[in-house]
Amino acid sequence: MILSGIKGKHFLFYQLEISPAILCEKFAALFGSFSLFKTPVDRAIEVRLMETMQPAQLELALLALDKVLDREDEVEMSWKLSLERAQYEVDRAQRQHDLAEPENRLVVRSLEARWNEKMMAFNNLREGYDRYRANRSWRPTAKDKEDILALAEDLPRIWRAPTTEAKDRKRIVRLLIEDVTVNCQPGQKNVSLGLRWRNNFCEVLHVKKPLPPYMMRKHTAETVQIIGTLAHNLTDNQIAVHLNESGYRTPEGRLFTKASVSWLRYRYRIQGPGGDGFTVKEVANRYDISTHVVYYWLYNGIIKGTKLAPGWPWNIILNDEIEKTLSEWVENSKHIAKINQLKI
What we know:
Blueprint: E1 2-4, E2 11-15, E3 20-24, H1 25-28, E4 35-37, H2 38-52, H3 55-99, H4 105-134, H5 142-160, H6 166-176, E5 177-184, E6 190-197, E7 202-208, H7 213-216, H8 221-230, H9 236-245, H10 258-267, H11 280-287, H12 291-299, E8 305-306, E9 315-316, H13 320-332, H14 339-343
Parallel strand pairs: 1-5
Antiparallel strand pairs: 2-3, 3-4, 5-6, 6-7, 8-9
Helix pairs in contact: 3-4, 3-5, 9-10, 11-12
């Protein structure tokens, strides 16, 4: 049985056209928004199963079981001594009750209450002993140990035999493993598998799942955040150099270039280094004119602006005198059309 580590619910198995996959029940209705290819999970469980069923490992396990059974024998002896003591107390209380004179009613009642008390303590101890025996470890005989070691020798051959069907392998797994808890996040390669064996021993396996092609080419959130931070003061080329020197690479394992950084800034709307002034679009919106007019002012020296690097936004400085001049220019010019007028 496979459980979802995120939702704690059972997984739903279904068959894809290419390969089998595991899909969480709740997300199955949402068109498989959370899925995990079953192949790496099966492979990891199979490898761990074969490692565990090695004869040398089983011999160590049997030796460890013998030590556990020896400790249980000691505990068993303690239980039996306690029961013998409790039984002795019951018998003693009964004898004292039987020897009392019937005429001494107060004494008889006192001894009867004590007898009942000892009987109750004995019964409680007996129930505890029965629960202990019900939970004791399995005790293999010498023949059982021989069969186990022989099975360990034959298991790899049986598992890989062409005549062994998937349902037979599944039965073998269910005999040894109680359940598997899968814990993974959408968009992440790392998957942890929590194995709970039939003896309640738990361990964790770590595997990697294949991602869809579009996610394999997707930059990490950490890379995007770093570029967003560096973009306040560095050019695209400087950012690419910084990333490469810091050991960062693209999802394909390549070095960053000016073009790749520029694309990321465009893709995630990361602004370049700004200043205390205005961009071309902000000036155009300020005077309700086209950006072509603002570029005309820049190229003819009517307004002053600077750029940190080619391809980066303009940083235009406006003061009261320049703003007054521009406002009069727009108001008196017969060639500048207002954006609002063009929309009408």
